[in-house]
Every structure is written in C-alpha cells, then in structure tokens.
C-alpha cells in the first residue's frame, strides 16, 4: 500500500509538472500574414515554438532574419519536421488549400491541428479533414479573429436569454478591409489569397467565412434552408481571378442572415448586428457594443475578456485543448462541426453566385 501511494504520488507530480510546461507547437507553412503572431512570439509559459515547415527557402530565410529565429527550426519537409521535433500541436499558416495536407500528415501521428480560417477550400477537403480527425481521435480547430472578441461571447449569451431579445430574426455581419493589396499584405500571402484554387475564392471566402461561422454558432448548428450570393469585381485590374465584393444571404425557418464580405470597405471592420423579436445587440469592435432588451433603453457596453471568459489568445485556447483543460463544444466557434458547415455554406454561395440563383441546402 505504501509503495502504491508513493508511485501514485510520483505519477501525479510528474503529470502535474508536464501540464505546467509550455505546449510544444510547430508551424506548417508561414506564407499567411498571420504567421507573425507565432513567429514574433517569444516562448513563454503557454507555448514553445519547436519547428517550422516552409518549402520556400527564400521565404524561410526572410522570416528567420526578420524574427531572429534559429535556422535549425526550419524544415522543408513536413513529415520530417513532425518526426524530428515531435510537437504536441501544429498550427497551419500556409494556404487554405494546404490545410488538408497538414491534417493528413499530423492526424495519423495523433498531433492536434489548428488552421487559420476557413477550414478548407472545398467541401470535399473539409469532409476528408473531419474523417481524419474522427479516425485518429485528433482535434482540428479553426481560428477566427472574432473568436477572441468579448462581444462575440456576450452576444451569444444574450441570444440564449429569451427574456432579453427573444428569438433571433435577423443577423447582419460586416467583415473585410480595403483589400489585400491596399493594406499591404506580403507578396507570398497575396499570391495565394487571390488565387481561386489556393484560397477558394476572393472576398467571399476570405471574409464570408466569418459570418457563416458566427451565424452557425448563434443558431446552434442549424443548417440554412437556402444560400443566395452575389459577387462582383470592382477592381479587376488588381484581383483579376477572384471576386472582391460579395453579399451572402442565409435563410432559416425563423431567421435570416446577411453577410457582407468585402475588399472594398474604406476601413477595416469585423462587426455584426443581431436583432431579436424584441431587442438587439450591435457590436462596434472587439469590446464595444450597443444593446437593448425587450424592456428598457439602449445602452453602450464596453467589455473586458474576464467578464465574458473569452480566450483572447488562440495559442492559449489551443494549448488548453491539447492539455485537456478545455473541451470543444459542438458548433462552437473553433469546432469541426461548425466549420464543416461553414465550408458547405461557402461552397453553396460560390455556386449561387455562378448560377445567379439561390441554392437549397435542405
């Protein structure tokens, strides 16, 4: 009994020590502009960068110099990197088209993956990712900036309080910026972001995915009845291969969502308005919103993350999932269920825009 107690104590202490160590993360691809979040991050109690896969030697060299990274971190072969550094998680910062390749390499090795939004360029690829995740019991998360917003969590909570605004009737989501070239993204990022295969489309894919993700979360995974989309090219001299303007309408039995995705906004925006039967919540940015319930007057609310329990760092969120401190909720913002439906909506939107008519999903 005494030996068992000592062994149990030793095991518990060892397990606790392991959990206290930073999560060992690797990066798969660094052409995405958001790769700077991890490349420019110093190792801390949350995460430690242990390997970087990037097939372009010129890009690898440029980023190593820019962020003063040890060249030994870089690999030109994804499988070789995973075998050499044995990370606890992989973050994909290459093209959206490459997300499947990353999951195909990581999932059989039982390594969790977080990809940048959206999950995949096509529904077929998204379904393959889901199958790999389930086959190997490995979580695959999709990261959106709006998932870090305290207002996103507060809006979701308000829609669950039927006494506040009643059932959702209309949601309008605005996402985008003046355009990739206009805001000065890198050439490596621009090359695939404006490619219809590597990105899956233009503004429709790049920013339409935000609205689909948020609405799927608000509607608890309900599949829209129909998807209608209109796309345009206001700047074909800059974006000859893809749309730069898109409007997507999702219809539900009791609600409607309008997603306005654009590379033509005169400013950067990620905001939404949710209207219920008797109240509303209108966000301005990550922390500020206007709300009005069935009774009372409109109020402006400025939130702190601690008030809503929001993870403002995707690295901390990913680390807590990896270490088992956090369970992904069905149709949560990062979840596979949500993001599979997002890709289904985007594929229907592209088809709707091409045909000039609505596409039925039910």
Short account of what is shown:
The chain has 362 residues and is of the alpha/beta class. The protein contains 13 helices and 15 strands.
What is the strand and helix layout of this fold?
Elements: H1 2-20, E1 23-28, H2 36-39, E2 47-53, H3 57-66, E3 74-75, H4 78-85, E4 89-92, H5 99-106, E5 113-116, H6 123-136, E6 140-143, H7 150-160, E7 168-176, H8 180-183, H9 187-193, H10 203-218, E8 226-232, E9 245-251, E10 256-262, E11 269-276, E12 280-283, E13 288-292, E14 299-302, H11 305-308, H12 314-322, H13 336-355, E15 359-360
Parallel strand pairs: 1-2, 1-4, 2-3, 4-5, 5-6, 7-10
Antiparallel strand pairs: 7-11, 8-9, 8-15, 9-10, 11-12, 12-13, 13-14
Helix pairs in contact: 5-6, 6-13, 10-13
Would you give an account of this structure?
There is one protein chain. This protein has 362 residues and is of the alpha/beta class. Helix 5 runs parallel beside helix 6. Helix 6 (123-136) links the parallel strand 5 (113-116) and strand 6. It is globular. It is built from 13 helices and 15 strands. The strands form two sheets. Strands 14-13-12-11-7-10-9-8-15 form a nine-stranded mixed sheet. It folds into two domains: 2-144, Rossmann fold (3-Layer(aba) Sandwich), CATH 3.40.50; 146-309 and 328-360, Dihydrodipicolinate Reductase, domain 2.
